[in-house]
Amino acid sequence: MAQIALKEIAHSYIANPKDESDYALKRIHSEWEDGGAYALLGPSGCGKTTLLNVISGLLTPSQGRVFYDGNDVTGLPPEKRNIAQVFQFPVLYDTMSVFNNLAFPLRNRGIQESEVKKRVLEVAEILELTPFLKKRAAGLTADAKQKISLGRGLVRSDVAAILFDEPLTVIDPHLKWHLRRKLKEVHDQLKLTLIYVTHDQVEALTFADQVMVMYEGELVQSGTPQELYESPQHKFVGFFIGSPGMNFLTCTLEGNTARVDGAGIMLDDEVAALGQKAQGKLELGIRPMFLEVHAQSVEGSIPARVKAVADQGSFKILTIDLAGHTLRARLTEGQAVPQNEAWLRFPTRWTKLFAGGRLVSK
Ligand code: ADP
Ligand code: MG
């Protein structure tokens, strides 16, 4: 296993890139610890596959260097980097049996047949492929084929890292959950460096210890699921993570108060002072979970209007109008549901300020 470092990586698919928009990856600088379980999370087209291919060596970046355990591997092809990569769609030898498909990466490296058999049986057991080992891959369902692909990624014990590129896309929803748990178990047992690409926040948050969020060719934040939820460093993280995502209100500053049309919302003094000097459009952000909703006026509350209530089972999501802006609030179980009128409180700790999309922080 290896520690992977990306230094000042940028990549453009265009021969003569002119400006930032010509780059699929912009200024990627990050480290992936040995043995870590990472998710690379972002919407379609943000550069996840490009980044994964730079890590594996399928792609040489236009700029920057890639290091494995401190050694520069930028010029090395995937075979020399000792990486296993599982693609979005299964890549298999259709005419071979499931056993031989799983054995292929090992036999290819000249591993002894007794060891091959041992590893294949172990991996087949984990992925519940044992009953199919003698069958030809061609006749199997898409699910089973992708499990074989996963197995081929997991079968070698000597790899520097295993990269998964949205591997569960073709898998049936109920199996997805099960396989994700399996991968997590495999990680916990074998302590492999795993990088798991997905556009699905639930998948990322349940799988990984550390989630790297990508947006328009940049890694905008890396953190534990809790850090991403509680302290989004970028507007995109606030919006993308959580359901519904963070509320944003365009504002101006007057001392330590954020003005949102008619409404005034108190901010942390230091944050407000930093906001005065910050560049770009100012926005206040608060998660629906942290927005306090009261049925009567309480100290420091701001009047608003309830537009809709959606029952989500154990909790309710309120849609609220505040000075012509729409906000969402999540009510805790058993909390009184205000009708028509509501009073909002923005706890200072959870009321964030963003300038040009980035968090203003102390
Ligand atoms: P993701 O995996 O997050 O969906 P990709 O890394 O596939 O994103 O793509 C990032 C950007 O690079 C997109 O704008 C995509 O159109 C572009 N791109 C990806 N692969 C190629 C390629 N082989 N040639 C040209 N442009 C590409
Ligand atoms: Mg992709």
Which tags fit this structure?
alpha+beta, 362 residues, binds magnesium ion, six-stranded mixed β-sheet, single chain, 27% helix, 22 strands, elongated, binds adenosine-5'-diphosphate
Task: Characterise this structure.
The protein has 362 residues and is an alpha+beta fold. It is 27% helix and 31% strand. The chain has helices at residues 48-56, 78-81, 98-107, 113-126, 142-154, 173-190, 201-207, 225-230, 235-240, 269-277; strands at residues 4-11, 25-32, 37-41, 63-68, 71-72, 83-86, 161-165, 194-198, 210-215, 218-223, 247-250, 252-254, 257-260, 263-266, 282-286, 292-294, 302-311, 316-322, 325-331, 341-345, 352-355, 358-359. Strands 6-7-8-3-9-10 form a six-stranded mixed beta sheet, sandwiched between helices. It has a five-stranded antiparallel beta sheet with strand order 16-20-17-18-19, with no helix packed on it.
Mean pLDDT: 93
Unreliable runs: none
Spatial order of strands in the largest sheet: 6-7-8-3-9-10
- What summary fits the major beta sheet? 6 strands, mixed
Radius of gyration computed on alpha carbons: 24 Å
Number of helices: 10
Task: Summarize the amount of helix as a percent range.
Answer: 25-40%
Q: Approximately what portion of the residues adopt beta-strand conformation?
A: 25-35%
- Helix/sheet category: alpha+beta
Give the N-terminus to C-terminus distance in angstroms. 37 Å
Apparent shape: elongated
Number of strands: 22
Instruction: Name the ligand types.
Output: adenosine-5'-diphosphate, magnesium ion
